[in-house]
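Subject: design request, 73 residues
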């Protein structure tokens, strides 16, 4: 891409920070976040795939996003 080098460095820095914060999440919750935001699965699809209640998936993802926000904050 023809992004400015400073923009590229900022993006890399942000990606590294996110990667580090993801590592602080318990493995199962990190997996849920990745299924939702990398693979693009809906909460319902994740619940079906993992065999857990939909409400549980929603709660875990919400708590994980709050933890990521705090970590990145």
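Subject: RE: design request

Done. Sequence follows.
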């Amino acid at each position: 891409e023809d992004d400015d080098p400073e923009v590229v460095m900022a993006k890399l820095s942000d990606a590294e920070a996110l990667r580090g914060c993801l590592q602080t999440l318990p493995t199962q919750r990190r997996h849920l976040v990745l299924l939702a935001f990398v693979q693009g699965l809906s909460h319902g699809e994740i619940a079906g795939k993992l065999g857990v209640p939909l409400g549980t998936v929603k709660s875990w993802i919400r708590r994980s996003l709050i933890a990521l926000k705090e970590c990145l904050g």
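The CA atoms of residues 48 and 63 lie 20 Å apart.
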